[in-house]
Write a structure and sequence with these properties.
Number of strands: 25
Pfam families: 2OG-FeII_Oxy_3 (PF13640)
Family: Belongs to the iron/ascorbate-dependent oxidoreductase family.
Largest sheet: 7 strands, antiparallel
Domain Fe2OG dioxygenase: 115-220
Organism: Grifola frondosa
Number of helices: 8
Structural class: alpha+beta
Bound molecules: 2-oxoglutaric acid, fe (ii) ion
GO molecular function: metal ion binding; oxidoreductase activity
Length: 399
């Protein structure tokens, strides 16, 4: 036998899904709470650590209605999002996200694997004011460019109730009640939360007061480009999740009953990525440096063990009542591609041993022609998966 179910289970259980966000409170010195804002030549000044309701009302009235991204367009729909916003040309403040240490926190607590060693750019995006009955229904943030991996929200300590942020990912749910977080702090503090772009989130209705937030889009900077400021060096040691997966994989590689003639392991991705339809090999290769969470851990550990880990499109054979001609065209078309049957996770035709199930976070549609009674177009679906090439016993390295 190539590999036993116990061995696959051992590997599976060593993949830890860390929370896809990190949050907390950060005390700041008084000047960091001062905000200047205005849309004409007259700017207002507000101290967000002790703002009166009247001052907050003026800020709120200066805002425009907040839109949201839908199918590449900015849409205004108050049944989906009711909040005020100021664009970055209409406000200024002293708080510096780099010097505050938040960028380092993101690197240490949110990112894993190689991405945790990459420079990060925080792009100031919007100021939002949520007055009474404001909310933002469940959504995912529209990625602004392929380098964007997440969002940072800071919440100022203005008095308010409600307006908690609820996050959902992988059938789990978390609530971040920023009003409670900041009011519990002995010194004036901001609440912050940072999450991956593919995490669904929702702002519950504000019941009273004003919730004032600033959002940043988080991007990876090119590894060889210079970061915008001198950022502290990332911690070079392997993180806990990496150490654990590394241990288990190493043990298996030393085990003569594990893929003694070599083979391929398959892993479903746990996050969604901003990638074009029908991505090229190069695009998939580039994506390897920007993976999130446990996907990044898998890649980093395999790199360390000189195992070739790569992203691949796996075409799914739906087998569901297609015409014979369509099935034949499909078989011909995807002869050279990796294909799997819809519900089949066993070592299949492709010879891949699936450690974790394929997921549908990154699914693509491809059309292909076929000729039945008349010329028709068939549709094939592909999922991006991570495949790891394991060499035979005694010669495990594959890169
Ligand atoms: O205000 C928040 O907590 C989140 C806002 C948000 O989801 C967004 O601006 O996309
Ligand atoms: Fe959002």
């Amino acid at each position: 036998m190539d590999v036993t179910e116990e061995q696959l289970e051992l590997l599976r259980s060593a993949i830890v899904q860390k929370q896809p966000f990190c949050s907390g409170a950060l005390p700041l010195s008084p000047e960091n709470f001062i905000l200047f804002y205005g849309k004409d030549d007259v700017a207002h000044r507000i101290d967000l650590s002790q703002a009166s309701d009247d001052a907050l009302k003026l800020l709120s009235e200066t805002c425009d209605a907040a839109t949201f991204g839908l199918n590449g367009q900015d849409v205004l729909d108050e049944s989906y999002r009711k909040a005020g916003k100021l664009d970055i040309s209409h406000f200024a403040f002293n708080f510096d996200v780099y010097h505050s240490g938040l960028i380092n926190t993101i690197r240490e607590h949110l990112l894993e694997g190689t991405p945790a060693t990459r420079p990060i750019r925080a792009e100031l995006y919007k100021l939002n004011v949520y007055g009474k009955d404001s909310f933002f229904r469940s959504h995912k943030d529209t990625p602004r460019g392929s380098t964007m991996f997440g969002t940072l929200v800071i919440v100022f300590p203005t008095r308010h109730e409600g307006g908690a942020l609820v996050l959902r990912h992988d059938e789990k749910e978390w609530t971040f009640d920023s009003a409670e977080v900041v009011s519990d702090e002995p010194k004036p503090s901001i609440a912050y939360i940072t999450f991956y772009s593919d995490v669904e989130h929702e702002v519950l209705p504000v019941e009273s007061g004003y919730r004032v937030t600033i959002t940043y889009n988080l991007h990876f900077e090119k590894a060889n480009g210079s970061p915008p400021r001198s950022l502290p060096k990332p911690i070079p040691h392997a993180l806990d999740n990496e150490a654990r997966f590394m241990d288990v994989l190493k043990t298996l590689l030393d085990d003569p009953t594990f893929l003694s003639d070599g083979g391929r392991l398959g892993f479903g991705l746990h996050h969604q990525y901003a990638i074009s339809q029908d991505p090229s090999d190069r695009e998939l290769q580039r994506l390897c440096a920007s993976l999130k969470g446990s996907d990044a851990v898998l890649k980093a550990v395999c790199d360390d063990l000189s195992l070739c880990a790569f992203l691949e499109l796996v075409y799914i054979n739906l087998n569901n009542g297609q015409e014979e001609e369509e099935q034949e065209a499909w078989a011909q078309m995807f002869d050279r591609c990796i294909t799997e049957d819809e519900d089949d996770d066993d070592p299949s035709e492709s010879g891949i041993h699936w450690v974790t199930e394929r997921t549908t976070y990154n699914t693509f549609e491809t059309s292909f022609p076929f000729y039945g009674n008349e010329p028709s177009i068939g549709t094939a679906y592909a999922e991006i998966c991570m495949l790891v090439q394991i060499g035979k016993l005694g010669k495990r390295a594959s890169i």
